[in-house]
Amino acid sequence: MEHQFNDEKFEKYYNLLIETNAKFNLTAITERDEVCTKHFIDSLAISRYIPNGAMVADIGSGAGFPGIPLAITRPDCKFTLIDSLNKRVTFLKDVSAQLGLVNVSAIHARAEDLGRSSEMREGFDVVVSRAVSNMRVLAELSLPLVKVGGCVIAMKGPEPEDELELSRDLIIRLGGDNISIKKYCLPELDQLNELQIDTECKIISSVPSASAGASNKHAKGECAEGGVSCNKGDENARDKIIHSVVIISKTAATPKNYPRVAKNLGK
C-alpha cells in the first residue's frame, strides 16, 4: 500500500524532489514509501535534541536532509542550509519558497569557509549533518560554527564508535566534549495506522561515550513527547537497519586557527 503524507508540505516537497531529480541527481531513493521513511522520518529523528527557538545550520544539506523536514515541523527554529554545489542550493531555495518556509535560508558555500568568517563563526546553537564525511573532518567543519553551550548533531551509520575514538583528541581541541551516541531504527510503515510525519522513529538504545559526563542529558535515553517509543534493547532491532546520532556539546571556544583549509581538514 502506498502511504500518503499527512502534511501538504511534505507532499509538495516529495513532488519537487522527484521532478528535480530527473534533471540532476539529488537522491537514489525515489519510491514514495522509501523517501518517507529513509529521508523524511529519518531526518526527524534528531528533532528531539534541538532546543526550542534554536538557530540551526545544516552542513552538506544536499537535497535538504535533514534541514527541510526539520524546518517544516519546527517553525520555532531558524535553519541555514549549507551546500558547496550551487544547483543544489538553487533547489533548496526553490523548495523553501514553494513550501513557504520563512524559517529557512540556503547558502552556496563550503562549511570550512563559513567557519572562518566573522558572520558565521560560532553563530549557531546547533549544527546538524547527515552522512557527511568522517568524524574528524566533520568535527572540524561543524564545531567552529557552534556557539559555546550549543552542540553538534551528526547522523551516522550503525557503528560510529571507532570513528569517534579516532576523533576524540581533535574534538576536544576544537572545544567539544560530553560526546554521546544514540542508536535507533525506523518504524515499519505497515505498523503505522497513518503516516504521522512528526512521530519520527524508535529509539532502541542510548550509549554515552567514555567522555560523556553522568549528568549529560543526551546520555539518558529520553524520548521527546510524540516519539514512537522509548524502549531500550528492542528485541526486533537485530532484524532492522540501525542508525546512529552522535551528539557533541560545545564547551569551549574553538581556537582561531580552525577550521583549516580543505586539504588539511581532520589531520
Nearest-integer average pLDDT: 81
Largest sheet: 8 strands, mixed
Distance between the termini: 48 Å
Q: What is the beta-strand fraction?
A: 15-25%
Could you name the CATH homologous superfamily of the domain at 8-177 and 244-252?
A: Vaccinia Virus protein VP39
Counted by DSSP, the helix tally is: 7
Helix percent band: 25-40%
Q: What is the CATH C-level name of the domain at 8-177 and 244-252? A: Alpha Beta
SSE arrangement, N to C = HHEHEHEHEHEHEEE
Q: What's the Cα radius of gyration?
A: 18 Å
Can you tell me the CATH architecture of the domain at 8-177 and 244-252? 3-Layer(aba) Sandwich
Architecture overview:
- The chain has helices spanning about 10-20, 30-45, 65-75, 85-100, 110-115, 135-140, 160-175; strands at about 55-60, 80-85, 105-110, 125-130, 145-155, 175-185, 200-210, 245-250.
- It has an eight-stranded mixed β-sheet, with helices on both faces.
- Helices cover about 30% and strands about 20% of the residues.
- It is an alpha/beta fold and about 270 residues long.
- It has a domain at about 10-175 and about 245-250: Vaccinia Virus protein VP39 (Rossmann fold, 3-Layer(aba) Sandwich), CATH 3.40.50.150.
- The protein is built from seven helices and eight strands.
- Helix 1 (about 10-20) packs antiparallel against helix 4 and helix 6 packs parallel to helix 7.
